[in-house]
Amino acid sequence: ETGVTQTPRHLVMGMTNKKSLKCEQHLGHNAMYWYKQSAKKPLELMFVYSLEERVENNSVPSRFSPECPNSSHLFLHLHTLQPEDSALYLCASSQVDGSYNEQFFGPGTRLTVL
Amino acid sequence: AQTVTQSQPEMSVQEAETVTLSCTYDTSENNYYLFWYKQPPSRQMILVIRQEAYKQQNATENRFSVNFQKAAKSFSLKISDSQLGDTAMYFCAFIPTSGTYKYIFGTGTRLKVLA
Fold first, then answer.
1. In this complex, do A42 and B101 lie within 8 Å of one another by their Cβ atoms?
2. 8 A C-beta contact, residue A80 and residue A16
3. pLDDT of B39-84, one tens digit each?
4. B18-47 b/e with 16+ CB inside 10 Å = b?
5. B100: which chain A residues are within 8 Å (Cβ-Cβ)?
Protein backbone atom coordinates (compact mmCIF):
# COMPACT_ATOMS: atom_id res chain seq x y z
CA GLU A 1 0.00 0.00 0.00
CA THR A 2 1.17 3.50 -0.68
CA GLY A 3 0.42 6.90 0.79
CA VAL A 4 -1.91 7.20 3.76
CA THR A 5 -4.45 4.48 4.49
CA GLN A 6 -7.34 4.49 6.92
CA THR A 7 -9.53 1.73 8.28
CA PRO A 8 -12.38 1.24 8.49
CA ARG A 9 -13.76 3.36 5.65
CA HIS A 10 -17.23 3.38 7.18
CA LEU A 11 -18.29 2.92 10.79
CA VAL A 12 -21.70 2.97 12.44
CA MET A 13 -21.74 2.89 16.21
CA GLY A 14 -24.08 3.41 19.09
CA MET A 15 -23.48 5.99 21.75
CA THR A 16 -22.33 3.36 24.24
CA ASN A 17 -19.89 1.57 21.93
CA LYS A 18 -16.12 1.72 21.94
CA LYS A 19 -14.33 1.65 18.60
CA SER A 20 -11.00 2.69 17.12
CA LEU A 21 -9.98 4.31 13.87
CA LYS A 22 -6.63 3.37 12.38
CA CYS A 23 -4.31 5.35 10.16
CA GLU A 24 -1.08 4.21 8.57
CA GLN A 25 1.36 6.24 6.50
CA HIS A 26 3.91 4.66 4.17
CA LEU A 27 5.72 7.90 3.32
CA GLY A 28 8.34 8.10 6.07
CA HIS A 29 6.86 11.32 7.41
CA ASN A 30 7.50 12.58 10.94
CA ALA A 31 4.13 14.21 11.70
CA MET A 32 0.60 12.80 11.70
CA TYR A 33 -2.75 14.55 12.12
CA TRP A 34 -6.40 13.81 12.86
CA TYR A 35 -9.05 16.11 11.37
CA LYS A 36 -12.82 16.16 11.61
CA GLN A 37 -14.65 17.14 8.41
CA SER A 38 -18.28 18.21 8.70
CA ALA A 39 -20.42 19.64 5.93
CA LYS A 40 -20.12 23.40 5.40
CA LYS A 41 -17.51 23.77 8.14
CA PRO A 42 -13.74 24.17 7.90
CA LEU A 43 -11.62 21.14 8.55
CA GLU A 44 -11.18 20.93 12.29
CA LEU A 45 -7.75 19.93 13.49
CA MET A 46 -8.10 17.52 16.40
CA PHE A 47 -4.63 16.19 17.21
CA VAL A 48 -1.09 16.38 15.88
CA TYR A 49 1.78 14.05 16.64
CA SER A 50 5.35 14.89 15.78
CA LEU A 51 7.94 12.17 16.25
CA GLU A 52 5.31 10.24 18.23
CA GLU A 53 4.74 13.07 20.71
CA ARG A 54 1.45 14.92 20.83
CA VAL A 55 2.12 18.55 19.93
CA GLU A 56 -1.42 19.82 19.39
CA ASN A 57 -4.61 18.98 21.21
CA ASN A 58 -7.24 21.29 19.90
CA SER A 59 -9.73 21.29 22.80
CA VAL A 60 -11.15 17.97 21.74
CA PRO A 61 -13.61 16.22 24.10
CA SER A 62 -12.12 13.40 26.12
CA ARG A 63 -14.38 10.87 24.41
CA PHE A 64 -11.78 11.04 21.61
CA SER A 65 -8.43 9.57 22.61
CA PRO A 66 -5.48 9.47 20.21
CA GLU A 67 -2.59 7.06 20.25
CA CYS A 68 0.62 7.11 18.22
CA PRO A 69 2.66 3.96 18.91
CA ASN A 70 5.24 4.72 16.21
CA SER A 71 5.85 7.19 13.43
CA SER A 72 3.82 5.18 10.89
CA HIS A 73 0.65 4.49 12.86
CA LEU A 74 -1.99 6.69 14.43
CA PHE A 75 -5.17 5.62 16.18
CA LEU A 76 -8.25 7.46 17.35
CA HIS A 77 -10.08 5.64 20.12
CA LEU A 78 -13.76 6.48 20.42
CA HIS A 79 -16.08 5.96 23.39
CA THR A 80 -19.51 7.24 24.43
CA LEU A 81 -19.80 9.42 21.35
CA GLN A 82 -22.66 11.77 20.60
CA PRO A 83 -24.70 12.02 17.38
CA GLU A 84 -23.01 15.37 16.62
CA ASP A 85 -19.72 13.48 16.35
CA SER A 86 -20.93 11.96 13.09
CA ALA A 87 -18.54 13.20 10.40
CA LEU A 88 -15.72 12.23 8.08
CA TYR A 89 -12.51 11.71 10.06
CA LEU A 90 -9.38 12.35 8.05
CA CYS A 91 -5.86 11.35 8.86
CA ALA A 92 -2.92 13.15 7.30
CA SER A 93 0.84 13.07 7.45
CA SER A 94 3.61 15.45 6.50
CA GLN A 95 7.33 15.88 6.73
CA VAL A 96 8.24 18.82 8.94
CA ASP A 97 11.85 19.74 8.33
CA GLY A 98 12.10 23.49 8.83
CA SER A 99 9.64 24.27 6.05
CA TYR A 100 5.98 23.49 5.79
CA ASN A 101 5.43 20.80 3.24
CA GLU A 102 2.14 19.54 1.96
CA GLN A 103 0.00 17.22 3.98
CA PHE A 104 -0.92 13.87 2.49
CA PHE A 105 -4.42 12.79 3.40
CA GLY A 106 -6.03 9.40 3.79
CA PRO A 107 -9.44 8.57 2.30
CA GLY A 108 -11.18 9.11 5.63
CA THR A 109 -13.51 7.13 7.87
CA ARG A 110 -17.18 8.05 7.54
CA LEU A 111 -18.49 7.79 11.11
CA THR A 112 -22.18 7.66 11.98
CA VAL A 113 -23.20 7.75 15.64
CA LEU A 114 -26.72 6.56 16.29
CA ALA B 1 -7.59 34.75 15.44
CA GLN B 2 -6.30 33.42 12.16
CA THR B 3 -8.99 32.56 9.66
CA VAL B 4 -9.41 31.48 6.05
CA THR B 5 -12.52 32.54 4.13
CA GLN B 6 -13.82 31.01 0.95
CA SER B 7 -16.85 33.09 -0.02
CA GLN B 8 -18.07 30.90 -2.88
CA PRO B 9 -19.74 27.73 -1.54
CA GLU B 10 -20.49 26.44 -5.06
CA MET B 11 -19.38 27.27 -8.57
CA SER B 12 -19.77 25.78 -12.00
CA VAL B 13 -17.81 26.18 -15.21
CA GLN B 14 -18.10 24.85 -18.72
CA GLU B 15 -15.51 22.37 -19.86
CA ALA B 16 -12.48 24.09 -21.43
CA GLU B 17 -13.34 27.41 -19.80
CA THR B 18 -11.44 29.22 -17.06
CA VAL B 19 -12.65 29.63 -13.48
CA THR B 20 -11.27 31.48 -10.46
CA LEU B 21 -11.88 30.42 -6.88
CA SER B 22 -11.39 33.05 -4.22
CA CYS B 23 -9.71 32.77 -0.83
CA THR B 24 -8.91 35.43 1.72
CA TYR B 25 -7.17 34.97 5.03
CA ASP B 26 -6.53 36.94 8.15
CA THR B 27 -3.26 36.86 10.04
CA SER B 28 -0.77 39.11 11.73
CA GLU B 29 2.09 36.81 10.75
CA ASN B 30 4.53 37.93 8.09
CA ASN B 31 5.80 34.54 7.02
CA TYR B 32 3.50 31.67 6.15
CA TYR B 33 2.54 29.11 3.54
CA LEU B 34 -0.68 28.90 1.56
CA PHE B 35 -2.13 25.82 -0.10
CA TRP B 36 -4.98 24.80 -2.34
CA TYR B 37 -6.22 21.24 -1.89
CA LYS B 38 -8.66 19.32 -4.08
CA GLN B 39 -11.07 16.69 -2.73
CA PRO B 40 -12.83 14.82 -5.57
CA PRO B 41 -16.12 13.09 -4.73
CA SER B 42 -15.42 10.08 -2.48
CA ARG B 43 -11.69 10.38 -3.08
CA GLN B 44 -8.69 11.53 -1.13
CA MET B 45 -7.73 15.14 -0.70
CA ILE B 46 -4.64 16.05 -2.70
CA LEU B 47 -2.47 19.12 -2.98
CA VAL B 48 -3.08 21.33 -6.02
CA ILE B 49 -0.62 24.14 -5.43
CA ARG B 50 1.53 25.71 -2.71
CA GLN B 51 2.74 29.29 -2.23
CA GLU B 52 5.35 30.64 0.17
CA ALA B 53 4.45 34.13 1.38
CA TYR B 54 7.96 35.51 1.01
CA LYS B 55 7.96 34.67 -2.70
CA GLN B 56 6.40 37.37 -4.80
CA GLN B 57 6.11 35.21 -7.89
CA ASN B 58 2.78 33.44 -8.20
CA ALA B 59 2.95 29.65 -8.14
CA THR B 60 1.81 27.68 -11.18
CA GLU B 61 1.23 23.97 -11.77
CA ASN B 62 0.20 23.17 -15.32
CA ARG B 63 -3.41 24.44 -15.69
CA PHE B 64 -3.52 25.71 -12.11
CA SER B 65 -2.17 29.06 -11.04
CA VAL B 66 -2.64 31.42 -8.13
CA ASN B 67 -3.00 35.16 -7.77
CA PHE B 68 -1.29 35.92 -4.47
CA GLN B 69 -1.86 39.42 -3.16
CA LYS B 70 -0.07 39.61 0.18
CA ALA B 71 -1.17 43.12 1.11
CA ALA B 72 -4.79 42.25 0.43
CA LYS B 73 -4.38 38.81 2.05
CA SER B 74 -5.88 37.19 -0.98
CA PHE B 75 -4.94 33.86 -2.57
CA SER B 76 -7.19 32.95 -5.49
CA LEU B 77 -6.90 29.82 -7.63
CA LYS B 78 -7.31 29.96 -11.39
CA ILE B 79 -8.09 26.79 -13.30
CA SER B 80 -7.57 27.09 -17.04
CA ASP B 81 -9.00 24.74 -19.68
CA SER B 82 -11.29 23.14 -17.08
CA GLN B 83 -11.73 19.39 -17.35
CA LEU B 84 -14.45 17.10 -16.04
CA GLY B 85 -11.91 15.62 -13.64
CA ASP B 86 -11.56 19.01 -11.98
CA THR B 87 -15.00 18.53 -10.41
CA ALA B 88 -14.28 18.51 -6.67
CA MET B 89 -14.30 20.42 -3.42
CA TYR B 90 -11.43 22.88 -3.25
CA PHE B 91 -10.01 23.96 0.08
CA CYS B 92 -7.73 26.88 0.75
CA ALA B 93 -5.35 26.43 3.69
CA PHE B 94 -2.79 28.48 5.56
CA ILE B 95 -0.05 27.86 8.10
CA PRO B 96 2.29 30.39 9.68
CA THR B 97 5.94 29.53 10.01
CA SER B 98 6.04 30.42 13.68
CA GLY B 99 6.49 26.85 14.87
CA THR B 100 2.87 25.73 14.92
CA TYR B 101 1.55 22.54 13.33
CA LYS B 102 -1.91 24.03 12.98
CA TYR B 103 -2.96 24.24 9.36
CA ILE B 104 -6.09 26.42 9.03
CA PHE B 105 -8.60 25.51 6.35
CA GLY B 106 -11.48 27.35 4.73
CA THR B 107 -14.97 25.91 4.33
CA GLY B 108 -14.35 24.89 0.73
CA THR B 109 -15.78 25.65 -2.70
CA ARG B 110 -17.64 22.94 -4.55
CA LEU B 111 -16.71 23.19 -8.23
CA LYS B 112 -18.66 21.42 -10.92
CA VAL B 113 -17.32 21.24 -14.45
CA LEU B 114 -20.11 20.92 -17.00
CA ALA B 115 -19.78 18.98 -20.23
1. no
2. yes
3. 998 889 999 999 999 888 999 999 999 999 999 999 999 999 999 9
4. ebebbbbbebeeeebbbbbbbbeeeebbeb
5. 56
